[in-house]
């Protein structure tokens, strides 16, 4: 007895966790600065923490009411009908829902490279396949409609990550509109805005009233600091919004997650603090790191260090955890998440010392 052939499925490679690194190096987790997973260094809103505590005694109940309340709140926030909001366990849950709704066996998606590996993973789980368009270092990772259209060949779904991970570049609004008006009628543009709160570019959600070939992904993992609860959502065109009831996993978003997300939406001050902190941190990283960086509108900065593995391992020994971007196809780069002021300054001091000592690859 064996599972089906999974040889085409590469496992997702996450950033290394504090506990994991501490055990490996024999260090106290409190002595480590983790800047590898683009998490919110300020944690969740105190209102969300209180909601989690309040929800704890109710976890024996399926989250029907909480799910409905969150859906309606998000619809009101974005000026949509409730049916247009697909609440999910993380944004990756929404990717699965959209894949189920869109792909027939052997259909293909078009995704950015480098990019989030779960786009293609989900397509292949559902018996589809994936091809890539290159977001190139040679072009400073600029995203344009022409870049996507040059690779486009009628794929069923096209993923657009803005801000892009791991580079931080954005797809301007006019370029997205050009794509929406250029792709074939059967193609869905999936705009992944996991880092959207940190960007100057407006959300694509307001385009749903004009275009029926755009869906937008959002998450509570980043700016809202709820990564551990796995809660996100997709916003879709009204014309086919009823597909959600046919593809979603029953009660996939937990009671606790829904209640925490509702409370987090009430704390705009915490989100604003998190966004401003990230903007300060990424500018500090770009100004003070003794290595080339790229402009970013996410809560992270991509840094060219020569030998990313050597730098990452050396930084860990110094108590700073950053992301080796070899898994993104960028073995010469690391990604540094935006931390608090103290964390960011510590990371810069450690990385500058290491980069000066580690020979290039």
From TrEMBL:
Identify the enzyme class.
Answer: transferase
Q: What is its EC number?
A: 2.6.1.9
* Pfam families in alphabetical order: Aminotran_1_2 (PF00155)
Q: Kindly give the CDD domains that the UniProt entry links to this protein.
A: AAT_like (cd00609)
Q: Say which domain of life the source belongs to.
A: Archaea
Q: Name one GO molecular function term.
A: pyridoxal phosphate binding
Q: Which residues carry this modification: N6-(pyridoxal phosphate)lysine?
A: 222
Q: Which residues form the Aminotransferase class I/classII large domain?
A: 31-351
Q: Indicate the family of this protein.
A: Belongs to the class-II pyridoxal-phosphate-dependent aminotransferase family. Histidinol-phosphate aminotransferase subfamily.
Which PROSITE patterns does the entry mention? AA_TRANSFER_CLASS_2
Q: What is this protein called?
A: Histidinol-phosphate aminotransferase
Alphabetical UniProt keywords: Amino-acid biosynthesis, Aminotransferase, Histidine biosynthesis, Pyridoxal phosphate, Transferase
One Gene Ontology term of the biological-process aspect is: L-histidine biosynthetic process
Could you say which cofactors this protein requires?
pyridoxal 5'-phosphate
Q: Which organism is it from?
A: Haloferax marisrubri
Query: Which pathway is recorded for this entry?
Result: Amino-acid biosynthesis; L-histidine biosynthesis; L-histidine from 5-phospho-alpha-D-ribose 1-diphosphate: step 7/9
Describe the reaction catalysed, as an equation: L-histidinol phosphate + 2-oxoglutarate = 3-(imidazol-4-yl)-2-oxopropyl phosphate + L-glutamate
């Amino acid at each position: 007895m064996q599972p089906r052939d999974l040889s085409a499925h590469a496992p997702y490679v996450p950033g290394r966790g504090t506990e994991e690194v501490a055990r490996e190096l024999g260090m106290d987790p409190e002595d480590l600065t983790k800047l590898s997973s683009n998490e919110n260094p300020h944690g969740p809103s105190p209102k969300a923490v209180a909601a989690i505590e309040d929800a704890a005694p109710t976890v024996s109940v399926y989250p029907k009411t909480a799910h409905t309340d969150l859906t309606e709140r998000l619809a009101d926030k974005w000026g949509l009908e409730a049916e247009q909001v697909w609440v999910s366990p993380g944004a990756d849950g929404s990717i699965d829902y959209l894949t189920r709704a869109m792909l027939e066996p052997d259909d293909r998606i078009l995704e950015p490279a480098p990019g989030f590996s779960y786009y293609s993973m989900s397509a292949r789980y559902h018996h589809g396949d994936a091809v890539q368009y290159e977001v190139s270092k040679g072009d400073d990772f600029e995203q344009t409609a022409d870049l996507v259209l040059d690779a486009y060949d009628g794929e069923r779904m096209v993923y657009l990550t803005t801000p892009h991970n791991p580079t931080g570049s954005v797809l301007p609004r006019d370029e997205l509109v050009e794509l929406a008006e250029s792709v074939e009628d059967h193609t869905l543009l999936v705009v992944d805005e996991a880092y959207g709160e940190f960007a100057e570019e407006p959300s694509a959600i307001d385009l749903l009233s004009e275009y029926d070939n755009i869906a937008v992904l959002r998450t509570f993992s980043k700016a809202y600091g709820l990564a551990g609860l796995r809660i996100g959502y997709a916003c879709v065109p009204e014309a086919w919004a009823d597909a959600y009831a046919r593809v979603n996993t029953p009660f996939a978003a937990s009671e606790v997650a829904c209640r925490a997300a509702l409370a987090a939406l009430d704390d705009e001050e915490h989100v604003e603090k998190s966004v401003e902190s990230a903007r300060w941190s990424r500018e500090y990283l770009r100004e003070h790191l003794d290595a080339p960086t790229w402009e970013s509108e996410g809560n992270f900065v991509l840094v060219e260090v020569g030998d990313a593995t050597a730098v990452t391992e050396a930084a860990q020994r110094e108590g700073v955890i950053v992301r080796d971007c070899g898994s993104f196809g960028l073995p010469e780069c690391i990604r540094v998440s935006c931390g608090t002021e103290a964390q960011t300054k510590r990371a810069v001091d450690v990385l500058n010392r290491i980069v000066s000592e580690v020979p290039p690859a």
